[in-house]
Amino acid sequence: MPAFLRSKTAQYLLAAVFIVFSLLVLNLRTLIPPDEGRYAEMAREMLLSGDWVTTRLNGIKYFEKPPLHTWMSAVSFALFGIGDWQARLWNGVCGIFGVLMVAYTGRRVFGGRAGLYAALVLGSMLFWAAASQFNSLDLPVAATMALALCALLIAQQDDADMAKRRRWMLVCWAAMALSLLAKGLIGIVLPGGVLFIYALVSGDRGIWRRLHPVTGLLVFLLLALPWFLLVAARNPEQPQFFFIHEHWDRFFLKTHHRDGPWYYFLLLLLPATMPWLATLPASLAAARKRVEGRLQPARLLLVWTIFILVFFSYSSSKLPGYMLPVFPAMALLAGVYLDRASRNAALSAPALLVIVGVTGVVCMRFFPIINLPLLGGAFGAAILCGVAASIAEWRGQRTAMVVLAALGGWMLTQLSMTAYETHGRQQAGRDAALAIRAELKYDTPVYSVGTYEQSMTFYMGHTVIPVAYSGELDFGLQQESWRGVASMDEFYARWLLSAGRGVPQYAIVREDLYGVLRLRGLPMIERARGNGIVVVTSPLKY
Questions:
Q1: Do 298 and 374 reside in the same domain of the chain?
Q2: Domain Glycosyltransferase RgtA/B/C/D-like: where (predicted)?
Q3: Under DSSP, is residue 537 helix (H, G, I), strand (E, B) or coil?
Q4: Which of 276, 333, 347, 369 is the most exposed place for a label (fewest CB within 10 A)?
C-alpha cells in the first residue's frame, strides 16, 4: 500500500475520492442563519428577478458585498434547482479547487511530495474543511486569492520562460479581479501589500518588472470594472456605501460591532489548523532560510501568512472567516516541512488527533444540543485515524501517515458539523417556514415583526415585510422605504384592515412581541414556532 500511495494512479484516485465526498456532504445540513440563509436568498432572488446587476436581500437593495458569490449560486440554482446543496455548491467547488491548486503548485515549485502533502494538509484543516461546506463569502475569496498566490509562484520561478511567465501572471491578475468581485478591495490590497513587503525583505526588486503590469492591469479591469460601472449607473448611492462604509469604516471603526483583541486570530489558529497545528511553527520558521535562486518562494509564503494575519488583527472588524486566505500558504509550507521532517516532528499531527478525540469523548456530556452519536463518531474517527497514522509513521510510511491524519481531520470536521444539524434546523426556522410555504402566493403579505430571520425567507420561497426592524437592511430601506413598515402602529392598522377584508396574511413575530400583539387583541392564529419566533396568520373571517 505505501508504494501504491506514491504512484500517480493513487494520487488521482485520492483526488477523485476527495472530490466526490466533498460534494456529497454539501446536503447534510440546513442552511444556518445568518450567513448561509442570507446568501442563498440573495441568489434565489437574483435568479427569479433576472437582475444580475443590483444585488438584493429580501427584495431590498443590498450592497455590502460584490456579486460573484451571488452570481455563482444563482447559476447553481439555474442548473440544478433551488436547494441546500445547490446553495453551497460554489463554496464546495472553491474548497476543492483550492486544494487541487495547492497540490499542483507545491509539486511545480517545491518538487517531491510537497504538493501532495500540502493538499492533504489544506483539505483537512478544520477551518478550510468546514468553510468548504458553509455558504459564505470567505472561502471563495480565499480560493481566488490562493489562485493569485499560486499563479504568482509558478510565474516567478527562475526557470520560467517568457511565455510561461506571461501566461501565469495573467492568471494572477485575473484571480485578483475575481477576488475583488468576491469580497471587495482586499482582493488587491492584500496581494499588493505582500508583494511590497516581499520585495523589501528578499531584495528581489526586479519582481516588479516581471509582473506584466500593462497587460495584467488590462485583464484585471476587463473582468472587474464592468459590474462596478453598471451598478453605480443604476444605483448612484452604491459607491459611497460600498467603498466608504463597507471598507474604510469597517477597517478603522467599530461601527459593525465585530471588534476583538489584537490576538483574536492567533487564538483562532489553535482550532483552525487542527490537526496540523504542531507542525506550523517549525514550517514557518524554516521559511526564513534563504535558498539559491532569485525567487524565494518560502519567504513569499511566510510574508503572505504574516502580513494577512497582521492586517486583519489591526482591523476593527474581526470574524473567523477573515483568516482563511492564509491557509493555502500555511499548507504549502507545511507540505515542504512534512516532506523533510523527522519522525518525532511528523508524529505531532496524529498525536494531536488522538488527544482531541479522547478529550472530546470525555467532554461529550457538555454538548446537550448536539447529536451525540454523530459527535462520538467524529471523536472516534479522530482517535482511530490518529493511532493508524502513528503506526504508519513508525513503520517509515510518511505518505500513509499524512493521508490517515488528513482523513481523521476531515472526518472530525464533517461529522462534528453534521452533529449540529438538529439544532441548526431549529435555529434556521426551517420547519416553521415549511408549515406555511404551500399557502403562500406571490402577493401574499408576510410581515416580519421586530426581526428578520435570514434562512426562513429562503425556505418559504417568499420575501417578508420588515416591521419596526432595519438591521443590515437599514441602508436599503433608506433607499426604498416602502418595502418596510416603520412602526408597530402602522403594522396594527394594516393587519386589522386586511383581517377585516378576509385577506390571507402572515407574520413572523419575535417571541417577546407575540405577547404584546395578543394584548392588543390582534386577530391571529398561531401556526408554528421556531427559534425565538412565532408564525401567525389572521382568520379568514373577522
A1: no
A2: 65-227
A3: strand
A4: 369
